[in-house]
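LAB NOTEBOOK - FOLDING QUEUE
OPERATOR: T.R.
BATCH SIZE: 2
PURPOSE: Compare the predicted structure-token outputs for two unrelated chains run back to back under identical settings.
PRIORITY: normal
REVIEWER: second-year student, initials M.K.

ITEM 1
FIELD SEQUENCE / FIELD STRUCTURE:
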Amino acid sequence: MEKEKTHNPNVSSEPLTLAEVRDMSNRRLSLIMREFRQGFEFLTKYEKSVTFFGSARTKPGDKYYEKAVRLSKRFAEEHGYAVVTGGGGGIMEAGNKGANEGGGHAVGLTISLPHEQVTNKFVTDELAFHYFFSRKVMLSFAAEGYVYFPGGFGTLDEFFEILTLVQTKKAENIPIVLVGVDFWTPLVDYFKNTLIGPYSTISPEDMDLFIVTDDEDEVIKTIVNSKPRNSVRYNRHRHKTSLDTKHCKPCEEGGTPLEKEACDKYMDDISGWDLDENKRLHKYFIFKNFEEAMDFIEIMADVADKEGHHPDFSLHDWNRVDVTLTTHAVSGLTENDFIMAAKINDAEEEVLNSRQQNKRTI
């Protein structure tokens, strides 16, 4: 006998229109872009950092939990590193705890889940993500080293992600340290006896891409003695010019348009902007809601009036502001445009900082 078909009133039987598909896609892309932009901006605040990975199930008192506390405290206290984790329990908690006790930055990149992940109490600065993949990119962005403690699928996933990036030279030769000889040795033996051995799927020199140790001094030395990452964050802290302290001239005054080499030099100091044929600067600013977007526009307008510069901007999808800069009098870019871009970035930061302050007072 044929089963009776049931109708779920919560699921529409009508196919989505093309306009609805586009709207859903645009909203999702806006959220993804916002997470990446906010994540990169968030992490560039820290001049140097080390990322800790490991099981969320590891309890206080476990030898690896306590080792993570000691190591992160030393990184913060002795060497001034921010310690970045996923912000949850276990090894993540241990890493943040040590950094906190060492008087440093205990950074948590957390994930929003249906059953809320609890941020550990030692986090001093937090950024929450909706998508796992954008959070994963941020956990692997620009750290001076990666320390892996015993963990499950998530820890192994992060380990192979970084290992693959370094092996294929998509990332610099970043220190990768596996803490826990008893835990990691069987995996290393598998690399040697199976991947290198009969199958030849990796090269013998790939074994030099990481180290396995329980020696805490060796962990510290390996990362501290490595060269700083040549990243957006490093440029921001070490090579920042005084663009944000300069003032624009009214863009009607013109001047001489900049050549490509000069534009490229200025681009290091205005994170997130795109250079369009050396004639225009463009950036998408994506905010949490319409109110934040309007606050940003008002601040940007006040700065533009003060500086005598005229950015072109438009508001889309209730929370995305598109901004374009050019010096119209010369149909190209002058230093004034880069000065204005730096000040618009400051306006965005003012809005985001205001959100964080409001979050803390709730």
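ITEM 2
FIELD SEQUENCE / FIELD STRUCTURE:
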Amino acid sequence: MTDIEKNLIELVISRLQTMPENLEISIGSEGTFKKKDLIKHVKKSDPIGKKIIKVELDYLRSLKNITQSVLNNA
């Protein structure tokens, strides 16, 4: 695992830790997961963990794009 991958995992775990304890997230046919379960999957970097990492990265990239668009049009 590269340093970048380790940093991404740490970033996603940090973001997941901000979620309320009772929140559950449904991941299609994979099932419903609580915060602690999501963190375990991300740490393992298993298929579910990789899906969570991808979703978080897509979200952060979209925020970057929106921010750039707003700044360019200001």
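REVIEWER COMMENT (ITEM 2): Residues 41 and 50 are 8 Å apart (CA to CA).
FOLLOW-UP: none requested
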